[in-house]
Amino acid sequence: MSVIQKIKDIEDEMARTQRNKATAFHLGLLKAKLAKLRRELISTSKSSGGGGGGEGFDVAKCGDSRVGLIGFPSVGKSTLLTKLTDTFSEVAAYEFTTLTAVPGIIHYKGARIQLIDLPGIIEGAKDGKGRGRPVIAVARTCNLILIVLDALKPVTHKRLIEKELEGFGIRLNKQPPNITFKKKEKGGITVSRTVAQTHMDEDTIKAICNEYKISNADISLRCDATADDLIDVIEGNRLYVPCIYVLNKIDQITVPELDILDRIPHYVPVSAHLEWNLDELVEQIWKDLDLIRIYTKPQGQIPDYSAPIVLRSGHCTVEDLCMRIHKHIIDNFKYAVVWGTSVKHNPQRCGKEHKLADEDVVQIVKKH
Hints:
- It contains 10 helices and 16 strands.
- It has helices spanning about 5-15, 25-45, 75-85, 130-140, 155-165, 200-210, 225-235, 255-260, 280-290, 320-325; strands at about 65-70, 100-110, 110-115, 145-150, 170, 180-185, 190-195, 215-220, 240, 245-250, 265-270, 290-295, 310, 335-340, 350, 360-365.
- The strands form 4 sheets. A 6-stranded mixed β-sheet has the order 2-3-1-4-10-11, sandwiched between helices.
- The longest helix is centred in the first third of the chain and has 24 residues, at about 25-45.
């Protein structure tokens, strides 16, 4: 029996099973089996060249960050890419116009953001239908995902695409579960909790560990964890990616309809064709990427405001800045002089661990 058939059988069994306390143990086991099969599916697609293979799918990273356009065919992804980046991506009034991944660059606030128009995915992509697996493999390399939805199509399309991405270990607009999992040599499975658990009992936790052939581990639950949360932590390959839902073709719906759709979280309404609200979309992309701009100042000269060095806010120390300029700078680093909101005094001497803020000016002083 093929991996895809095994996945389908388990999904069918899960769909038939009522969800209650009595079935939580059984469902937890099925979810663990499903996660293992999905991992097998991903690894086989990578080894056979499907991970990024296929013409146009192996897109070289460039710019300061990478954003992927994902959606069903003919929702307007190619038009969005063309309008936002001045890169031509073939647009036509029929499905599956884009057959390869087409990259472009958004120039915004001194940053270069790579935008990739991915071929339209279809339902069942995670299980190998269409060209879904290489599409989602490229999506896994993105710092932000734009799910493009057609305002004229059912809102359920949103959930269908989320399900495809979840099947490949991509978690949208979520934080990693607050669970510590540590294997050990002996002593069995030890579970500690700082929060009352309403979704899993100890038997379910041990059964999931047993499915992964783990017999000795310390597990600390600091959240009301589900079986899915525990499986995600054991698998260890989940990606937690911010996502914006781009509702396209709003020029073709009424204002009351738009008011209803306005309740969707993390969404931006646009008309790519008429270029409505694209400025707001780019601003939201900037916010969700959480980028900061750092200006460098050579000794005895004025700061260079024309070409900021762009860092992610989670990796924005003086050392990160040095590594972005050149990896050998840190070898001769003495101290940095910083002007801006990250310091108490302007200017201030800082070490390599100092965290920088947006639009700081930095002068690197080297050892003589």
